[in-house]
Write a structure and sequence with these properties.
Blueprint (H helix, E strand, L loop, with lengths): L1 H33 L4 H15 L5 H13 L4 H44 L5 H25 L3 H16 L3 H19 L16 H25 L2 H15 L7 H9 L7 H11 L9 H33 L3 H5 L2 H30 L3 H16 L4 H17 L1
Helix pairs in contact: 1-4, 2-4, 3-4, 4-11, 4-12, 5-11, 5-14, 5-15, 5-16, 6-7, 6-14, 7-14, 8-9, 8-12, 9-10, 9-12, 15-16
């Protein structure tokens, strides 16, 4: 009878696990289809669905999870979704939550890449319009983040220094050193700023598994560039470029733009026009902006390239969330860590401002008419509060009109 009882329990566990995974899939896929507006809006959708509607987390634990995702490099909204999936159903739950939230925009951007290949870029006016939309979207992000993250003398100083370093010293190493320096300055200047006491998160993941995730993250970050140099293989070079970009980006999807541009365009994998056209299209689809990698991969190597690039750019986010989440409650109470977060966030504003200038502004605003059109789109997005996807459509249509003027 004991064996029969144990057998019954064993049959119940998988069904419970499968039910949880199925629920995570349904909710995350719905969010992936409907979450327009960028990472801040995504976190609002998550709060409504996961906290208010389903009560998978309480307010304090959700806020604590968001604080972790803002600290880690990578896409904050995707990391929050992964973290919620892990808290709900372990590592597999995190994977299902990521897949559901990411898949819709990946499919849309791959189809867009094939559309561009089918019709050819040439000097299409609507492509130029998408480039102008990118100027408006990034400008809005700079203003929004600057008001929150660089709103006093010391934080603004860090932001301006980050702007200067990013524009003058344009290498992948400079971004890493810049973030380390910003964290160090943050510890010195901001560690005394008071914050709310941290809350405990119940994480169904062992610290051993978390440690293994962090080791894998570091081994890939260090080892991939070495393998790339020794092999000369295009697929390995692609994986290294996208993995490194996903590993070193603080501040979300917009900040990945300069890193990806330096990896893709100078290597002649894509032209600057193709790159910015895809970035503009990425604003029109729901879900995380990091799925821009799917467009780039599809433009380079078809559907297999899209899958490869998407896995590479999101893998660091998954490994970091799984690696840090079990330790987060303890780390969050450290004032030096809190100061480092403030310094890094201020530097992100400067990096984003540098991206706004080059390549976004310099590639899109070529004459006075372009600047006037950008101002109109900014008015519609920021003051008239039109949804980003509608502004993208207006940008594409207006780009065609600019050709006729």
């Amino acid at each position: 009878m004991v064996e029969e009882h144990e057998r019954d329990q064993g049959e119940d566990r998988p069904s419970g696990k499968l039910a949880a995974l199925n629920e995570i899939w349904r909710v995350s896929f719905k969010l992936g289809l409907t979450s327009f507006g960028g990472p801040i809006a995504h976190l609002g959708y998550f709060h409504h669905e996961y906290v208010r509607q389903r009560k998978w987390l309480d307010e304090r634990n959700y806020a604590d999870l968001i604080a972790l995702c803002q600290l880690l490099p990578g896409p904050a909204s995707s990391q929050a979704g992964i973290g919620i999936g892990i808290l709900r159903a372990g590592l597999l739950g995190g994977l299902v939550a990521w897949l559901g939230f990411t898949l819709p925009s990946v499919v849309m951007l791959v189809l867009f890449a094939y559309l561009l290949k089918g019709i050819g870029l040439s000097d299409a006016g609507w492509i130029h319009g998408l480039k102008i939309v990118a100027v408006v979207i990034v400008l809005q992000a700079v203003l929004s983040m600057g008001q929150k993250l660089a709103n006093d003398r010391n934080k603004a100083t860090i932001a301006v220094l980050a702007l200067a370093v990013t524009l003058v010293w344009q290498t992948a190493v400079s971004q890493v050193l810049l973030m380390i320096a910003a964290a160090g300055i943050g510890v010195l200047w901001f560690r005394k700023e008071a914050t709310a006491a941290p809350t405990e998160l119940s994480v169904p993941l062992s610290r051993r598994a978390a440690f293994i995730s962090l080791v894998i993250f570091l081994v890939l970050l260090v080892g991939l560039p070495l393998l790339r140099e020794s092999s000369g293989n295009l697929w390995l070079a692609m994986f290294d470029s996208f993995y490194r970009s996903g590993s070193l980006v603080f501040g979300g999807g917009h900040v990945v733009l300069p890193l990806l541009e330096r990896e893709v365009v100078p290597n002649d994998w894509l032209s600057a026009g193709e790159f910015l056209a895809g970035y503009g299209a990425a604003q029109a689809v729901p879900g995380p902006l990091f799925t821009f990698a799917a467009y780039l991969g599809a433009s380079m190597l078809g559907t297999a390239g899209a899958v490869w690039a998407t896995l590479a750019i999101f893998l660091p986010a998954f490994l970091l969330v799984a690696g840090v989440l079990p330790f987060w409650s303890g780390l969050r109470s450290n004032r030096k860590m809190q100061g480092a977060i403030i310094g890094v966030n201020a530097a992100v504003v400067g990096i984003l401002l540098a991206a706004l200038y080059h390549p976004v502004f310099t590639s899109a605003i070529l004459e006075a008419n372009d600047l006037v059109f950008a101002a109109v789109l900014f008015l519609l997005l920021v003051f008239w509060k039109l949804p980003p996807w509608l502004v993208v459509l207006a940008g594409a249509a207006g780009g065609e009109l600019l050709v006729l003027i």
